Amino acid sequence: MTTSAPAVVGMPLAAVDTPALILDLDAFERNLSRMADALRGKPVRLRPHAKSHKSAEIALRQIAAGAVGVCCQKVSEAEALVAGGVTDVLIANEVVGEGKLDRLAALARKAKLAVCVDHAQSVSDLDAAASRAGVKIDVLVEINVGADRCGVEPGAPALAIAQAVGACTSLRFCGLQAYHGGAQHVRSVAERRAAIGGAVELVRATRALLESGGIACETVTGAGTGSFPLELASGAYDEVQPGSYIFMDADYNRNEFDAAWPRFEQSLFVWTTVMSRPNAARAVVDAGLKASSVDSGMPQVWQRPGVEYVKASDEHGVLAIAPGARPPTLGEKLLLVPGHCDPTVNLYDWFVCVRRGVVEALWPVSARGALR
User: From 1.10.760.10, 3.30.70.100, 2.40.37.20, 2.30.30.100, which CATH number describes the 13-20+264-364 domain?
Assistant: First the structure.
């Protein structure tokens, strides 16, 4: 982490140096409230995914708004969140390697911790690490419901892994991880509904098989920002894991959303300065590849019709200015909507939290670079 924050509390946004990661607190808080409203009265828990924000400050606010805990992807993320006061964490991913497993087991002494498995060898290795640490670790079997990433196949293969967990002295089987990541950015509602419908059928069949074999499946968890209303309505899930809803990004904003679903606002931005105006049709900003992820497309210039971010290099972003558009001036500062919020956050040490144009708080990205 850098030694100094990019702003001070009370500073006007216009004075914040660039590039900086800006969080609009009013929009962020409305997003928290809309998610809480969506789950109110439903028999489904909220466990938001902290890989989006990598921030203990934000995780604690999500829990205060009704979440039972959070998810993360890496042991080092879990360590940073627990150090920041989070007491209930699911590592919604597989963890392999003795060093990582020993760290995971040690962390289970400090917080309620769960982790995913999808292979018999992983079960054996995790049990050994838990035994060495003298702890019992909750385990979910991850099943492949269509993303074709991690996850044992549903049905009998998942049953075999659950049975292996049940035979361990230092592990406790507590359910299924069933996340269809590939469905989150399927653009049309109809296609997303079909993808999640297929996932739900696999979940139901696998849960029924487990229970017919005498294995209680207390939790099925999964879902993301692009699909969670479907998992929520299915009756097959006990917990949902949306993450990007607090921020949104250009990729999610391209999705079609059902009119009955909650709509989340853009709250996360990259603050950038026009550093060059080579000609009337082009401007260059100081936010390039090191300031905003482009894996899901280029950032979008916020509320500036006719000004398009078209190319990124290490330290530069090129804007194309359409004829008739209001051109940005040299030194002008602009808000960019990141193409993909999660990896963009990981480029920064701080959230500069702004309310109505004034810096109200600075929150550290406490798990920045937590990749192990």
Answer: 2.40.37.20
